[in-house]
## 1
Amino acid sequence: MGSKKKTAVEIIALQCTECKRKNYTTYKNRKNITGKLEKNKYCPFCRKSILHKETKAK
């Protein structure tokens, strides 16, 4: 078995800052975006639009 090759694009999860649940997954290009990704998204558990921050996806 070979090792995984590092690419510029990786899969990340977006976690709600209030309830700490991972609601969304998306792609991130590491060459263009060097810091942590933050977006305002709708959280179905909090029932409002809240800031979601980047975390590791399993």
## 2
Amino acid sequence: MGRPGLNRRQLLAGIGGLTVAGSFGFAALGTGADALASSASTRVRYWNLFSGGDGYNMIAMLDAFRKEHPGIDVKDSTLQWGSPFYTKLAMAAAGNRAPDLGVMHLGRVTGFSPGRLLDPWDVGLLAKYGVKEADFNPALWKRAVIDGKLYALPLDIHVQLCFYRKDVLKKTGLIGDDGRLVPVTSTGEWFDMLKEAKKATRKGLQTIGLWVNDQNFQWWFFVAFYTQLGGTWFNADNTEVTFDTDKATQVLEFLRQHVADGYANPGMGSVGAEQFVNGTPFTWEGNWSVPVFSGAKLEYGATPLPPVFGKQATHAESHSFVLPHQAGRGGATNEGAHQLAAYVVKHARQWAAGGHIPAYTPTLSTAAYKKLSPQNEYVSAMDHQANEPKVWFAGSTGILAQRVGPIVVSSTLGSARPQAVARRMKGVLTQLLAMKNPMDGKTAAQGGAAA
């Protein structure tokens, strides 16, 4: 795909109508299909959801692994991103036809019935191949632990960012002596910044692209700013909704003001990135847009979403390796899966070129990573991640986003009042908390989620 972010959003928009390609629901990429004909002693079947630039970066890392480990053949297969991928993976695990290694968004792991559809990692084997808990951000590692066992090995975090055009803003006083955007710490300062930026905005462009019509982006932005306010979702036992409607209203009013004051145009809600290339001063996008903007040779920067409520927090998800359940998991193939995952995690410099922040923290301190721009400007997001709650119905393209995202959009566009929307959101959270996970028939309170 020419534009990773756009393709992903198109998939999200049409999620209900997507079908899995081919009889097995995947198309092989790279040289992995040659594994069947190889004489190597061990073969590892690996399913992932990476296409476009991410797909090519993954292929490069897999080919490097193959070159260094000729005794292990990797048969890599790429499935359709989103619900088709998770449906296929669940069916394969339930039917004892699962691959040896897979990829999932970390937020979806809790809902995947760990212990039934996923097998835990052998941390001793991971350590044997150079990967251990101390190499990861503590909060990120904790998200991957369920009932005391590690069920996901994080590869990265991917975050929502505030992209800004340095060339457009350089005459506004909004670019500091360090060449970066002047920091803001309140909603007032942020809207003052937009007011100045609007003066430099060319006619026909909006001041900031916010994907105001997109339920996923609006939900991700809400999660970030609600976390900045210290908002919570449920109690520790997942038996009670603790969602704060007053804090939620503040966030909804903040998002709405961008449209009400004319900085974001609903009619341009789906072309934020394109307008940024054409000269819009700001756009809020996922870090996967870095290759697009860098490829266009823009003079730009990128920071985590502004801490307008006083606390640093930007929405983050994580691509993670998982072990789909196999009745007879073990032996050389299982060890090969551990070795492959550990290798990719440790050699994520290639992966960082796609804009993702490597989860393996030693990578972040290397000279090569520190030279990456604008990655070196937003790497701090690793330490202030705003995540969805750790419940079965959360995570990328999960039920929570599908149910709550459109409600947030209604407030941002002005078709519903923020206070009323906040109450509706709490009502949906209450319904979901009582709902049973179709994977195992358990509610959030009954399922294992304690780290």
## 3
Amino acid sequence: MGTFTMRMDDEFKKEFSEACKELGCNISTVVTMLGTKMIRERRIPFEVCSDPFYSEANMAHLKRSIAQLEAGRGKVHELIETED
């Protein structure tokens, strides 16, 4: 049996480990599951894409909106929840 070593941020590892534990497994099991599925399907078994929320255009818009609020030129709205 071989050994696989990987470095990750301490906080990330803690959260990853907690998520695995909630699912009844550990990080090693999840990585093995990922590897098994990739070998079988010959692909990454989930969509890899960027979150459009963090696009440059959206981040610039958010920064402008924050600046307007901080300058007293904005209006804070309460969240309105609807049933779909």
